[in-house]
Amino acid sequence: MVTISNIGKLQITATLTMVLIFGVIASILGLVLWYSGLTGFAGIAAALIFSLVLIGIQWYIGPSLIKWMTRMKEVTPAEQPQLHEMVERISKIAGIPKPKLYIVYDGSPNAFAFGRTQKSAGIAVHTGLLNMLDKKEVEGVIAHEIGHIKHNDVIVMTIASVLPVLLYYLVLVLGNKDSRDRSFVQMLFVFFGAMMAQLFGRLIVMWLSRTREFYADAFSAYATENPTALMRGLAKITYGLNISVNRGYEVNQTMRAFYVGEPTKENIADIANALELNDDSMLEAAMEAEKGKAALELFSTHPLTVNRIKELNKIRKELKK
Q: Exposed, middle or buried by CB within 10 Å (0-12, 13-18, 19+), for 252?
């Protein structure tokens, strides 16, 4: 089992690894562009080439890093027959090759998809998810992850994740013209502009990520013909996550963007009671706290759970007709 201290070490190690691979490279290229005075087509070409290199690195080493960070274990049909049956059946509905199945020994209730292509994709399921959700809810989550694989979301988000870096260097390059004749304050403004461009790029990437989550939810709802299962599963994942944290587990913040749901810390006591009593009306009341957080959603990789459940409810009504 992954303990709190182990997860903390994984977070630190993973963060340092990403800084070494991407942060240092970005800093070096930034200095090269700045001091070489590259502008115009040459500077833009250098920024574009660097962005393409980043995409290649992320695409190639991403799956290995994820496996290493989570210490996941591939499981056979003999070890997890129900999960394999779900994955195989829903993969046929999606029209994709059956992904490999992994278990992550982590008490937080979550799951995620990863891989370079549809053929090399994998689905990782946390033990906490299997402990907290019932069979139908687990199936809804599995279908959601297969929806990500069907829509090629891993490669889409890998490419999109380079946008902030590309915008940063484009502004740096375009503002670097005649930099030797500029004052320190002027160069500082260029740097500030580049940082703002990077932030804008990140907002676009997060919006795209939220959109892909809605698409994956919709696929799950139609593939299983049971939107209610995913609705309840999302509620348990989002709100029950805090209960599992209180019971001695931590969330792997490095892997947070990959997960099926984002944790929230609202009304933990009320949510705990609702889950223990299996009371839908209490869960709905607990979710009301999210409605005033629309602005915060702009800075999240996942939509607010209340909005996801709202969209799934529309599909539920459609399927009932």
A: buried
Residue 259, both tokens? 């997960």
Please check whether residue 47 is in contact with residue 33, taking contact to mean a CB–CB distance below 8 angstroms.
yes
**Per-residue pLDDT tens over the stretch 172-196:** 777 666 555 566 667 777 778 778 8
Domain boundary assignment for the chain: 4-320
Enter the pTM of the model.
0.74
pLDDT in tens, 55-79: 787 778 888 888 888 899 999 999 9
> What sign for the dihedral angle of Cα 144, 92, 99, 152?
negative
Mean pLDDT estimate for the chain: 75
Distance (Å) of CA 271 to CA 60, 128, 214, 215, 256:
40, 17, 24, 27, 21
Dihedrals phi, psi of 222, to nearest 5 degrees: -75, -40
Q: Which residues contact 16 (CB under 8 A, 6 or more apart)?
A: none
Report the C-alpha gap between 250 and 3 in whole angstroms.
8
| Alpha carbon distance 228, 149 (integer Å) | 22
d(CA 243, CA 227): 24
Q: With left for phi above 0 and alpha for psi between -120 and 50, is residue 36 left, alpha or beta?
A: alpha
Of 139, 145, 213, 250, the catalytic one is 145
Q: Is 145 a catalytic residue?
A: yes
